Amino acid sequence: MRSDVLIVAHRDRRPRIESKGGLAARETEPDTVHLVSAAATPLGGDTVCVRIVVEPGAILRVRTAAATVTLPGPTTHESHAMWTLDVAGELDLDPQPTVVAAASRHITSTRLALGGSARVKLRERIQIGRSNERQGFWSGSLHADVDGSALLRHRIEMGRGSVTDDELAAPMACISELNYPETEADTAGMALALAGGGCLSTWQGERL
Q: Is the distance from CB of 126 to CB of 142 less than 8 angstroms?
């Protein structure tokens, strides 16, 4: 199943929201939209595509109503989530954690284009496995540009078959956060200032 969500935030107007498939979006407070599952997704073979546009002067907070749990499908274990973010205003994207359950393989890709006086906070939280599960795999990439120039190219993977996979000790949880244009932020892990502005922090451990 493919799920598509479009959120366009305007200055001094309510956001425009379109959705289809297993994921819906609801305006819950001023400048705040929650993503809500309308069906069990993502299962193996599913693709979730979320596009967010924040126009100049607009403010948008995006949350999820609950954690996302990925599961294997009947014919494939792999699912995908793709985020496309065009930000000229202010975006705070902080979904609940994604739990990569059983033997599922989940691939996340985020492409962020910043322009003008954009401000952004992006936080991603990943947990490999529910209680006593270690078979899952996750890969996440972040491609960020400011006014068409490269800001960040970042990729992490965890779980069974990843470069960090080890029976004795391997990270099974991750928190990654990008802030822009702030070069310092109070976040989990150590914040590293980026040459083009903003900062990136990454924390890894056993459990969130």
A: no
On whether the CB atoms of residues 159 and 128 are closer than 8 A, the answer is yes
Counting residues of the chain whose pLDDT is more than 70, the rounded percentage is: 100
* pLDDT score of 168 more than 90: no
> Under a CB-based contact definition with an 8 Å cutoff, are residues 84 and 144 in contact?
no
Q: Are 140 and 201 in contact (CB under 8 A)?
A: no
Task: Report the SS3 class of residue 114.
Answer: strand
Token pair, residue 160, equals 């069974």
Residue 68 neighbours by CB distance under 10 Å: 22
Return the structure tokens found at 171.
């990270």
- Give the global pTM: 0.96
pLDDT by residue (tens digit) across 150-162? 999 999 999 999 9
Compute the distance between CA of residue 171 and CA of residue 168 in angstroms, rounded to an integer: 10
Of 150, 128, 130, whose CA–CA distance to 139 is shortest? 128
Single-letter amino acid, residue 97: P
Q: What is the CA radius of gyration of the chain?
A: 17
Q: Per-domain residue ranges for the chain?
A: 2-205
**What integer best gives the mean pLDDT of the chain?**
95
Q: Which amino acid is at 121?
A: K
What tokens appear for 178 in the block? 């990008």
Do the beta carbons of residue 171 and residue 204 sit within 8 Å?
A: yes
CB 186 within 8 A of CB 202: no
